[in-house]
Design brief:
single chain; 89 residues; alpha+beta; Alpha-Beta Plaits
């Protein structure tokens, strides 16, 4: 099954280091998506790909001991939009 997850993450997440960390974790699992700094200090993370891989990255990003904590998560079971790669902004 494929999944698309949009998570708003707060905590020690602002800056290019966190976005590149998210990117690396996603690419290691073959996921598409993005990580974008928001003006309010949170980061929007969008992940698309295989269900197990998306959820594993999301747990790693927001689980115990992680730099971030989720402030909102939207999960959609759908076909990925066909986006390739991963973007950081």
């Amino acid at each position: 099954m494929t999944r698309r997850v949009r998570a708003l993450v707060s905590g020690e997440v602002q800056g290019v280091g966190y976005r590149w960390f998210v990117r690396g974790q996603a690419q290691d699992r073959g996921l598409a998506g993005s990580a974008t700094n928001l003006a309010d200090g949170r980061v929007e993370v969008v992940l698309e790909g295989r269900d197990d891989d998306v959820l594993a990255v999301l747990r790693m990003l927001t689980g115990p001991g992680a730099a971030g904590r989720p402030t909102g998560v939207a999960v959609a079971d759908e076909d990925p939009r066909g986006e390739q790669g991963f973007t950081t902004a």
